[in-house]
Predict the 3D structure of the following.
Amino acid sequence: MLSCFTGEDRFCSTAAEVIDVALPHLEKAEDAIVSFGQGCEGEPLMQWRLLERCIRTLREKTGRGTINLNTNGSFPVRVKELCDAGLDSIRVTLNSPHPRYYKRYHRPRGYTFGNVIDSLIVAKEEGIFTSVNLLVFPGFTDRETELEGLIELIKRTRLDLIQMRNLNIDPDLYLDTIGAGEGIGVSKMIEILKKEFPSLQLGYFNRTKENFE
């Protein structure tokens, strides 16, 4: 993963440092995967030119392994550039397929929910494997309106994979922010998604190229 920190002790890895770590892993590891961005050290698209150089160099040296981007999907144009450089897959994090709920939780600055969707669409058009990191909160994620929105999002973006992760947050705080409601049950939601999209993958981890299909 790419490490970048801001503040008094500003630091960002150089391309050479990233390649020194990533290349041996791609060349030698079983089911090798390199991911830029893990959701806890900043948005990798803010360093997209660095990533582009790294990805292009890695792909010049080896076609082995999987290069993945974990992102908020804020800059679709930058996503396209990384796809052109040799990116294999992308994972975009969201808590809801509806802009109003997305904004209440993610509080985007400098980008819109539309940009997030466009990033998924662009990535798919560029031929790479696409997934969303769906932050699951039972009683909200499984509401009928949320499920309907998710179905429309899958159709629009032609999504390959939904990674489902528990949203670890104070439930009272979240419901105060999102609003009250009632779900149909996460198991029922999954059942409907499988029936509606037989080829859609559901899981927890990023996929390697060998498991894209």
